[in-house]
Design goal:
Layout lengths: L2 H18 L1 H5 L4 E3 L11 H12 L3 E3 L6 E22 L4 E22 L2 E16 L6 H4 E3 L5 E3 L11 H26 L1 H6 L1
Parallel strand pairs: 1-2
Antiparallel strand pairs: 3-4, 4-5, 6-7
Helix pairs in contact: 3-5
Length: 200
């Protein structure tokens, strides 16, 4: 082959890789996985986050009919208080200080494995994630109310733009973020062994 023709072919090959994305041109189709409900996931939100994370990965896709199953269970879950607020309450007789929890840390550990029928292909491995969140305790009267010029106590919640979030609402929002983050960790961990899984 003449040198000029050979150079032209190399240039075309290079631009074809760049135009369609190098990884996509050289990789095979995504590995298809089935994801049954996560054991211990009462709401289904964690299972949903895992399906989204896998479908967003270039290495995997989700199908309820796949012959490789991603088994996930909640191995550990705990919440600890890491922040406190102090509030001074003045009554007719005396001044009293109250301490309320105002910041929590939630930790989640998943047991993850891949199976094909009854045969283990990978795992179990344990993947952990945690996050922190602030909230206003239900009994924190000072944070949840204020005095009007007339001296009447009025609730602050109607004027809040989200900064006065109660504990239960804050827990729910934090859990959704925790599920998304740990699901992305699971997908990233699986991506490290994707080539080995194809060979099994």
């Amino acid at each position: 082959m003449p040198r000029t023709t050979r150079c032209a072919c190399l240039v075309l090959f290079f631009f074809s890789l760049v135009s369609c994305g190098y990884e996509w041109c050289l990789s095979t189709d995504p590995l298809v996985l089935r994801v049954p409900f996560v054991e211990g996931d009462a709401s289904g939100n964690l299972t949903n986050a895992l399906v989204i994370a896998l479908d967003s990965s270039p290495y995997f896709s989700y199908s309820p009919h796949a012959n490789i199953t991603l088994h996930v269970s909640i191995h550990e879950r705990d919440t600890e208080t890491i922040g406190l607020d102090e509030e001074s309450l003045v009554t007719e007789s005396r001044k009293k200080n109250q301490i309320w929890p105002s910041e929590n840390r939630e930790r989640l550990v998943l047991a993850v494995c891949l199976k094909k029928g009854d045969r283990f292909l990978w795992g179990p491995e344990y993947i952990q994630e945690s996050n922190q969140y602030d909230y206003v305790h239900d009994n924190a009267l000072e944070a949840l109310s204020f005095f009007t010029p007339e001296g009447e106590r009025e609730s602050s919640l109607q004027f809040s733009l989200g900064e006065f979030e109660g504990r239960f609402a804050a827990e729910e929002d934090a859990s959704l973020l925790l599920y998304r983050n740990i699901a992305e960790k699971v997908a990233a961990r699986l991506a490290l062994v994707e080539e080995r899984l194809r060979a099994l």
